[in-house]
Amino acid sequence: MLDYSQPIDRARTPTASEAPPRTSEAGFNVLELVSLLWRRKIAIASAALIGACLAVTVGKSLTPRYTAIAQLYVDPRELQLVDRELTPRAQDVSGMSMVVESQARLITSNSVLLQVIQQAGLDKDPEFGGGDGKTLTSSLLGLIGLQARAPSAAETKEVQLAALDALNKHITIRKTEKSFIVDIEVWSIDPAKAAMLANTLTNTYLTESRNSQALAARRATSELSGRLKELRERLRNAETALATYKAQNNFVGTQDSLISDQQLSSSNQRLSAARAATMDAQARLDQIEANKRTAADAGAIPEALQSPTIANLRAQYADARKKYAEQTAELGPRHPALRQTEKQVEDLKRTINEEIERFALSAKNDLTRARDYEASLNRALEVQKRQSLQLSQAAVRLRELEREADASRDVYQSFLKRSRETEEQETLNTSAARVIGEATVPQRRSFPPGMSLFAMIGFMFGALAAACWFVAAEHLFNGASAPEPRRRAQTPSPDVLRPQPESITPSPALALVEKPLIARLQEADVIRTLGAILATGGGVDLTRIGWPTLRPGFPLTTLLNAWRDMRAAMARRAGGKTMPVMALVGAGDTTGRSVTALNFALAAARDGSRVLMIDADHQAHTLSSRINRPGKSEPGKLGWLSIGNKAAREIKTVNGISVLPATGSDAGKAADAISKAIAQARSAGGYDLVILDGPEMPLSAAGRKLLDGTDALVAVLPTSLDINDSMEDILTALGGAQRKLVGVVLDELTPATQTRQRGKQYA
C-alpha cells in the first residue's frame, strides 16, 4: 500500500535471518475478561439486584413533588386607546423579544411574590419556612389564660423573606422560543396547592401590571398638571407683551397683513396704472403732432374718427368737394357759383383743422393731468415707503414676540392635551397580557420519576460496580496479566530479497527524506484543442499539438500550488545549483507521463521560469513525435543546442519552453548525449530548469545512470491502473534513487479517443 505516514526508506530491508523486535504488552485479553465475568455472574447479578432494591428504597423515601403549569400570553404591543390606531403597525422584533423577557422576569419579582405570600398565607406554611402560629410557649400560656406577645415587625419581615426565598425555588419561568407565551411552573408537595399558587401568581402579576400602568399614568398626570400653571402664566405674559408692542408701534391690520402693507400695495398698483395712463396720453399726443407735421390727413386719428362732429364736417367737406368738381367741369373758373363752392370747401377744411387742434389741446391737457397725478402718487408712495421701512424695522421685534407667543401656546396646548390623556389613562387597562391556560391540579408527580427507572439505574450501577471490583481484584491482588498478543509472521517479499545493482547500493546510515507531495491532474485543470486543425506555421505552440494542456489564464489551483511546492522541494534538494534537473517517470502508457511532463513545464513557464524540456524516452519518444510533425517545424526556429546530430536540435516554442527531441541512437549513447546537453546548457546559463520526459520504465542501466544525474524525481501514476501497485513497481525500480522523489502526480485525465475521418486527425 502507498503510505506516507513515515519517511521513505527502502534502502535497507530486513533479511530472512533478521527477526523483527518483539514487544510485550501487559493487559487483559478480551476472552479472559469475558471468562472472568462469566465465572462471577451470580455475584454480579446479586449485586445488581441489591442495587435495584436500594435505588427503589431511595426513590420511595423521597418526598414527591407536583408541578402545576399556567400559560400566560405577554403581548408587548400594548393597546393604543388614545391614538388613532389600536396597536402600532410595526415594531422591532428583537425589541419585542426583550420586552417579553423583561415581563417574564417581572413575574418572579419581589413585589409580586410578596403579594402571593400574603394572599396564600405562605408565611404560615411549613413547606415555605413558616409556622402555624402556635408554638409550645404560646400553648402553655394559653392554658393559664395568658396571651403570647405578638411577633415584632423584624420577626415578621424575616419570616416573609424566608418564605420569599423558598417560593423563588418553587417557581420556574420558561419562555417559548419565537413566541410571546410564558409558561409558569410551580411545584409543591400538595398538588392542589401547586395549582393554587400558579393561578395566584398569574393573577397577581396581571393585577400588578395594571396597577403599575395606572400609577405611571397618575404620576405623569401629576407632573404635567404641575407644569400647566406655569405654562399658562408664561403664555399670558407673551401674548400681553405682543399686544402692547403692536399698539405702541401702530401695527394695525387684519389677521393676514397690516393696513400699512395693504396701503403700500394699493398705492403701488395705482401708480402703475397712472404711469400707463401717462404713457397712453403721451402716445396719443405724439400721434396727433406727427399727423400735423406730415402731409397726411389730420382727421385720420382714432379720436377724430370717433367724433360725430368731425364725421359730419368730413361728410359736408366731401359733398362740397364733389359739388366743386362738378361745377368746375360745367362752369368757368371765374364763375361766381364756382367761387362760392370753392370758399365753402376751404371753410369746411379750416373747421376740420380747428377741430383737430382742439383734439390736440385736449390730448395735451390729458397728458399734463396724467403727469400731475403720477407725480402725486409718487410722492404718496415715497411717504408710505418710509413708513413701511420704519414698520419693518419694528416688525423684527414683533416677529420675535409672535414666535415666543406661538411657542408658549404650542407647549401649553401640548401639555394640556397630554395631561387630559394621561388623566383618562388612569382608569384604562392598556396591557395586552392575558391568561391563556389556567393551572389545573396535577394528577402525576414530577419528582421523583417512576420506580422502574430507579430499579433500572440501580441494577446497572450494581452490576457495573461488581464487575469493576472483580476485574480490579483479579488484576491487582492476583498479579495476573494477559498474554502477549499474537503477531502475524511477516514473510519477506521476493523484491526485498532480490539483490540490487552495485551502483545504487545505499549507505549503511539511514537518512530520513522529505515526504513526497501528491497532486491530481484532472479534466477541470486542462483544455483539449484540435491540434491538427489549430496548429499554425508561425511557430511551435505546445498548447496546440493535440494534447490536453493547462487552461490559459486560469487562476492558481490546487494542482498549480502542488507543482510549485514540488519545484521548491527540488530547489532545496539541488543545494543552490543554477539549473536543477527534474525527471518525470511513470508506469503504464508513456503518453500520460509525457502529457504530465508537458503541463509541468507549462506551469513552470507560467511562473516565469526558462524551461528546457528533454525527451529522455529514446524508445517511445512520444513528445518528439508530437513536435516533429511533417511540415510543422521550420529551420528558423531551430536552436543552438543539439544531441549529437542535426535531427535532434533544440526547438524554440512560443510558450517560453525549449524542447530537445529524442535521438535515434541506442540507450547508452542517448543518455550520454542528454548528459552532455545538460552540461552544455548549464555552462551557457540560458535556462532555469531542465525537465526530463522519461526514461521509460522499467529502467535500463542507461536510464539509471541518467537518473543519477538528476536532482529530483516525480512519479506519474495513471488512475486507470492500481496506483498502489504502480507505486510499488516504481519504488522497486528506482531503488536508492527513490530518495530523490519529491512528488507524485495522479493522472486522472480520460484517455483521448483518436479517430481518423477523411485523412484528418482530431484530438
What can be said about this structure in brief?
The protein has 763 residues and is α/β, with parallel strands linked by helices. The protein contains 20 helices and 17 strands. The relative contact order is 0.10.
The number of helical segments is: 20
Outline type: flat
Q: Tell how many strands the DSSP assignment holds.
A: 17
Walk across the major sheet and give the strand order: 5-15-14-8-13-9-12-11-10
Low-confidence stretches: 1-27, 479-511, 630-640, 752-763
Task: Tell me the fraction of residues in β-strands, as a range.
Answer: 5-15%
Helix share, percent: 40-55%
Overview of the molecule:
By secondary structure, the protein is α/β, with parallel strands linked by helices. The chain has helices spanning 30-39, 41-61, 93-107, 110-120, 136-143, 153-170, 191-248, 259-293, 302-306, 308-330, 336-425, 451-476, 494-497, 531-534, 558-574, 590-606, 622-627, 667-684, 701-708, 723-734, and strands at 66-73, 171-175, 181-188, 434-437, 517-521, 526-527, 549-550, 581-586, 611-615, 638-642, 649-652, 657-660, 689-693, 712-718, 741-747, 756-757, 760-761. The protein is 53% helix and 11% strand. Strands 5-15-14-8-13-9-12-11-10 form a 9-stranded mixed sheet, sandwiched between helices. A hairpin with a 4-residue loop joins β11 and β12 (657-660). α8 (259-293) packs antiparallel against α11 and α18 (667-684) runs parallel beside α19. The longest helix has 90 residues, at 336-425. The radius of gyration is 61 Å and the shape is flat. It starts with 29 loop residues before the first helix and ends with a strand.
